[in-house]
What does this fold into?
Amino acid sequence: MLRLYDTATRRVEPLELRRPGELSLYVCGPTVYAEPHVGHGRFGLAWDVLRRYARWSGLAVRHVSNVTDIDDKIIARANDEGTVVAEVAARSEEVWWKAMDRLGVERPDEIPHATAYVERMVELIAGLVAGGHAYAGGDGVYFAADSIPDYGLLAPGPLDQLQAGARVEVAEEAGKRSPLDFALWKLAKPGEPTWESPWGPGRPGWHTECVVMSLDLLGDGFDLHGGGIDLTFPHHENERAQAEAAGRAFARRWVHSGLVVAEGGEKMSKSLGNTMSLPELVDRYDPRAFRLLALQAHYRRSMTVSPATLEAAGRAVEGLDAFARELPDARDEAPDAGVRQRFAERMDDDLDTPGAVAVLYGAMRDARASGDRAVASAVVDAWERALGLVLRSHEEVSPEAWAKAALRDRARAASDWPGADAIRDELVADGYVVEDTPAGTRLRPSR
Ligand SMILES: [Zn+2]
It folds into this structure.
């Protein structure tokens, strides 16, 4: 059984599912106002691997991830550019998904947008006000953090220290009674998109968005709430606080993915000039190299990404492709059960991908020495289906054709059968035999 580190209990815990065999997963998605950077890519890969591995091990997965399409940063960007919020949000979201597609990150099953849920957020806030957990205070409606007994469960330290930090950070939320209180509804300022509410026109606070959308789409007591580690506090704690105050059973487990740091452990930031945009990375390097790098780091730890590490990982991926070419028919063999089990043992232990990758490299050495196709089959299956790293076993297939094959897999995953068929026809016209395997579309030249 899969065990994961739960940020709330601070222990690795067995994933006991709400409904056996079905994993419900909510991951906080992007605020769409700028190009995604390398850290976003690592984030996308972390959840993609969890989702693929859960499915590989036999679970049905329902993955919901939101898009925050109303936010101070989007408004600021729209004002700078002299355009409207919806335009900035739509354009930035398109760039986000294109970059994720190129990384081979599967799209969530559902992608709710905050602006489509405002009415339901107003309902939740009204309930919190009626229940004495929230109050109208000058420039908005605020949640009273001390109205729930265990506020601070997901906080990294004692509340009095956090309180001091919070006081410094949010001077603009003038109507708050206490520094740990947070905005549920922000009354409109001139030039902002607004919605009606019992407290006056305005817009919802970010923390309210995810509570409403996760419970609406996944139901009470869903299995896993995930996000980047930087969202643990206050964002996730504030989501949890609202659900608790509203009397709703919220996520059973909390899981967080680590950040990307620059060489030497320095934080990456635009002002330090050491960031790389994700579109730039996938243009310059094999996206599979980035995936391998992410797999070689544990998902909870910080990882470094640099031209040197990407180039080294690119050479390692070429080595994997060479392995797949040496035993080209391995996929047709039933995978070796021993390799599968050793791989699963590492993955089940809080997604120990570095350990799992080591198991696969060991098995590759064995398969090369013995020519055992069942072992090779287990290796290829684990890389491709469980970890999402597709090996190129036919040199004669062009990168463009592989890209089309990946597009076709996405169309199939989205049940877009006409789209998938159209791409297959194109590939056939390009001179390929197109086969469906459990690992996705497989290509070989037809002559
Ligand atoms: Zn969220």
